Each structure stands twice: as C-alpha cells, then as structure tokens.
Amino acid sequence: MIRVAILTVSDAVAAGEREDGGGPALAAACREALPDVRVEESAVVADDRTAIAERIRRWSRAGLDLVLATGGTGVSPRDRTPEAFRDAVDFEIPGLAEKMRAETGAAFPAAYLSREVAGVAGATVCLALPGSPRGAVECFRSVAALLPHAIALVRGERPPHPAPDQPGGAS
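Now predict its structure.
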C-alpha cells in the first residue's frame, strides 16, 4: 500500500477565490498510475514557505509514503514551494525533477521555467509539481513508474532494480 497526501499551494484557492483543480487531478492520476495506492490526506495552504514546510513535515511524521504538492513552483514573487521543500526534506532526488522538466519541456518549452523539486523527508518521498492541473499531472506521470521503487528504498526495503524493459527501468 502506498499512502499519499496531496497539498495544493495557492493564495487564491486558500482564500476561496478559485476552485482547486490541481489537487483532485493529482488524486485521480495517482489512482490511475500507481498500484495499491490510497490518497489519505489533502490540504490547501497559501503561498507561505513556513506553512508549506510544516505540512510536509507533519505528513512525513505521520508515516505517509508520498507527498505531492501542486503550485508555487514558478518564478513569480510569491512562488516559494521549492524553498519550502528544501526546508522540509532531508535530501533531494534531483533526477526526478530533471526527468519531469525534460519530458514536459519537449512539448511545452515554458516547462523549463518551472522549479519542480523531489526529495525525501524522513521516510516520505516528496514531489513539488506545477500549479496547473495539466502540468501537475503530466509531471507526475513522467515519474510515476519510478515512485514505487523509490518508496520501497526509502522504507528501507531492498527491492530488485527494475529491468530495462519494465516500467521504471532504463531504456
């Protein structure tokens, strides 16, 4: 079982000025892409570095396997999700963020302006994804096949490495 939490980072959604599209879209993408997944938590916070980092830490301490955040990864003055993630995680997984940008940037060059971050807080894999529902889902899907293996490793398990012809294996 992969236990997931989804955090929407948006001043407008937190203030009730706009409906949350990214969180529900990510929840649906998780259920489609990951075997044996349960979205257990979801929340909305404003673009506030401290609030974002605290929510990640709280979910990590609760033993969730995967935290997905949507929003706040751009280059506008209020976008501070990457900094909050770096405050909360023990270490980064730069290859996942690189893969997200590479795969989505091929069709949408502005994706290279996004500042996705992947890391591990305690025993929780954490991904900071774009705020647009489409961007969040496409970035998530680009790395989804790698996540069960990463989660198993973070849990301290010793799963076999995926073969090149399996999802998450090298090509």
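The radius of gyration is 15 Å.
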